[in-house]
Design brief:
- This protein is of the alpha/beta class.
- It has one domain.
- It contains 12 helices and 8 strands.
- The strands form 2 sheets. Strands 3-2-4-1-7-8 form a 6-stranded mixed β-sheet.
- β5 and β6 form a beta hairpin.
Length: 327
Amino acid sequence: MSNSNGRGNSGGRGGSFGVRLGAGAIWTVCRMAGALPHRFLYGPVAAFVCFVLHRVARYRLRVVRDNLSSSFPERTTGELRAIERGFYRNLAEYFIDAADMAGLSEGGHLRRCPWPDDNRAKVLAETAGRNWIALTAHFGSWEWFGTFGLYREGPVTVAAYRPLRNRAFDLYYKWARSLPPRIVPVPSGEMLRFFATHRDGIDGSPLSLVLIADQSPPLDAQSRWVPFLNHPTVFFHGGEKIARKFGLPVYYLRMRKTGRGTWETTFEQIWDGVSPTSDHEITGRYARLLEEDIRREPALWLWSHRRWKRRPEGDAAREYFEKYGRG
């Protein structure tokens, strides 16, 4: 967990003795779990975790069902229940991924979530050594999204994250996320400052700032509501702000499931960092691409998040309904 490559306080061991002890215990358990055969982890173990989450704990089941029914009013109850079951299965595999990655080598990460040669060559040619931004979402198994930074000809991945309330788990995730070289975890609130300090790159490599932008953000004067899954929705716009301020190309990071515990990352350019663009246009393009992915594979999105706990009010509501209508 060296500080020499710019990891600073985001990648160090940090925390009180009690927090480090708790994180160490979690690490040990995860390493032991990760030593189990892949088929066993993603077969019987995943099925058991899914059963506990879905049928025993009923983890946020009401939120999941409300979100699904309001997002897909055209679907039958049977279809919605099928998506629900798929969601809990994917959530179980996500938890296993989060534990399993602690024991993986750099090569193991690349085997589990590769970046295809043709897409890699295209993106590297388009960015040509520049810093760039990758906007992603809680879709698939987002713990793997930084593996593209492990390719030596690629950028250093600076992965934004939201600190967890449980400090021991938060420290565990810091260790796990910064274990592979060329992946630097940074708290979301520190991303702009981190980039301003390291905008010339790290160890001679440009940076890719990876931002998860699909959860419900605090509202501010720059917030704009857009249609998304049959709801007026507001998105984090920090990625767009950084991109336009520094002229950084922006890509949508797409995750495709290729098997149990295996994924593939590809990128689609949203903005080239140069062409004229209006306010919130980049964020709007991101929202449309994400909705396309969710409609294609709905079980892979994080339906347990209270995504639509707010609706536009006052001037924001009038602006939204004048632009998009009420349908």
